[in-house]
Write a structure and sequence with these properties.
Layout (H helix, E strand, L loop, with lengths): L2 E5 L2 E3 L8 E5 L8 E6 L5 E7 L6 E3 L7 E6 L4 E6 L8 E7 L11 E5 L2
Parallel strand pairs: 2-10
Antiparallel strand pairs: 1-3, 3-8, 4-5, 4-9, 5-6, 7-8, 9-10
Amino acid sequence: QVQLVESGGGSVQPGGSLRPFCVASGSTFSNADMSWARQAPGKGLEWVSGIFSDGRATYYAASVKGRFTISRDNANNMVYLQMNSLKPEDTALYYCVKGSGAAGYRGQGTQVTVSP
């Protein structure tokens, strides 16, 4: 069973950058596709980005494509989300998710707040 712990969120001004990351425990991490999802206040869970188990393919929601980059380090059981050109509408609780969508097992989340 994989356990996921997210960190690296924070508060930034519009146009700023953050790089939340997720540390996974469990021997099956390197075999698992992984994703990031987010939930803004009062809204449902939104899939943001995904990466294949071997890191060879990545996918992005239209709302973040060109601004966010997902990556992983299977040797250290970590997944990253580089977020650039942040906008106020990116404010949300960001989750690391096991699997290719937003509905899989996820951690407790890390808060990202974008405001002037």
